[in-house]
Amino acid sequence: MTNKEIENQEKGDASSTQNVCFTTKETENSYLPLKSEELPQVFHPWRRYLARFFDITIYNIFWSSFLAFAFNVPLTVRSNLENILDVFIAITIMLFLEPLLLHLFGTTPGKAIFGLKIETADGRLLSYSEGLERTWRVIGIGMGFNIPIYNLVRLWKSYSICNDNETQPWDESISYTIKDTKWYRSLFYIGANAVVLIVLVALVYSQQIPPNRGDLTIEEFVENYNYYVKFFDIDFGNEYLDKNGKWVENDQDGTMYIQIGHGEKPEYNFTLDKGYVSSISFEVEIKNNENLLSSYDTQMFLASLAFAGAQEEMKLFSKIPTRIAKQIGDKTFEDFKFKEAGITFSCDTEYSGYSNHSNTQSDFMFPSENATENYFSLNFLITK
Q1: Contact between 158 and 168 (Cβ < 8 Å)
Q2: pLDDT per position as a tens digit, 321-358
Q3: What are the residue ranges of helices labelled H in 124-213?
Q4: I need a surface site. Which of 92, 243, 317, 336 has the fewest CB within 10 A?
Q5: pTM of the full predicted structure?
């Protein structure tokens, strides 16, 4: 064999060896699982955060609606502790509902607005268990289980990771994609939040409507009355109105109540027509009272709203409660007469021996220093 033939044979062997190595490499790659760095990820921290914030708001609406309609819980007077509990429950709803949305659609309402989608490495939608595991890690690692202070630390850490184009711990084995970053998605987000705000306002306004509508029995009137006591967070100490419309005392729980001024609660009188309430009234007469005198605006307002709120004129965004409150509040310790929702409300007041309060609209009247005796009477009537 000549030198040239030997050289050609060596080149052919080398070329053959190179083809084998390339093929082997491709074959190996085709069977190896993709690493997280090779999977598409979304490095837009604010889009991701705003999407999740929107989703949690939706979950919170679900819970608030359940409280409002299932248990008639007033949403406007929730304490700070109750608000914190509400957020934890919303996150619990997220834990179980988000995996279902990811399994069915590969996205959530917030993610869909920004064109975000989650899939597995091989392009299929996550199973429910895979979604559950991911959401649990999001809540724990990303949100710090919403524990105050710690959650801020975890949110900042998550923001930093995303901002540095690094994969979040809960996204290491998934494909996270974004369709586009067009400007109109921001408008969609603003519009979606506006809709959510309208829903929340409607939810609060819906609670102005009492549980009983139409003609009322005494018991139904009382139920409406006590509903508004709770809705407006009014404190009557250890007393409440029972189903017969009489003031009774709660069992003592060790709480001490301090009464400011003369605040004897009026007894409501009911006139019935075929078993339904047609009018409600109470009378107050006080003689030679040495203490300051409290107004009866609250009792008049609650009784008026419990009756008027049952009428068909009381709609979702009705201003009836506001108008009734103004008519009564502007005439504290004074006569008034007005109509609302087909009902007439009137109050006749007479007093002597008390200081002039007409310029202050105070909720109290003080006995005059020079008066040897004083007198106060009030007659309140609601007539359908």
Answers
A1: yes
A2: 999 999 999 999 999 999 999 999 999 999 999 875 54
A3: 128-137, 150-163, 184-206
A4: 317
A5: 0.76
